[in-house]
Amino acid sequence: MQRNAYKKAIGERIQQLRKGLRKEGFNGQPKTVNKFLEFLNPKIDDDYDNYGDYSLTDIKFSYKKDYVSKVEHGIIFPSTDFLFLIHLRFNVSLDYLVFGHNLPEIEELRKICKHSGKSKITDFCFNLLEDNSKYAEDFDDEDEDFFVDYRARLDEVRKYFCTHQQMKLTQKQFSELLGVSKNTMDKYHSKKNDVQSKKYADIRNTALEYLIRFSLTTKCSLDYLLYGTYLLEGFPSELMELLRNYDYAKQTQILKLWLEETKKFFKNS
């Protein structure tokens, strides 16, 4: 993994968003660093229900102009909280911010939505799942305290990857595959810190470099790891929320099903 190249590319994409240089929809966004920080800063009256799917505690916003400069010039990796706020405010995927592209299935579905209409695609995809009983929702919506954080998803995807690839790897062997020490892997997978503790938040905020390695190795989306679903402009929010009810294995199957069936149906119609 070329860590400096990733830091530079992430910084450049964030700077482009700040300056409104992307062609698809961000003209008129705040351009100065101070206004950019004000734009990102979570406010008490914010109507952002989505924070609760990323963190059970308020996001502590202590970023300054110097921090933004270091991120944009590729000197440091952004914290996951900082990246997540950009992800929400600009309606771009975490995969785009880090890798420069979206998950292929999501990108293709977005293109189909653009040509055939979001509502048609949404209804079609909902019906596909209703007609298939094996996609009964995995999670209990009535349990308001149920929270899945990135550590659970890391373990879930690691196990899926080893099973799917028929690789019976020990945790040490898996860490070697990622190119990190076993202690580093344990740091980000460990459940010893409560999800509402400061220690948990501090560790999560240093996780991006590890998550990049993990995503590159397993081919798992960063959006799934940190958010449990996919947020980007042009992808139906109803489908985004529906996917959140499924684990990684079923989300993978569902996205493949949606893409295959929508391509066939809307091509013929």
Automatic annotation (TrEMBL):
It comes from the Bacteria. CDD domains: HTH_XRE (cd00093). One of its GO terms (molecular function) is DNA binding. Residues 67-97 form the HTH cro/C1-type domain. This is Helix-turn-helix protein.
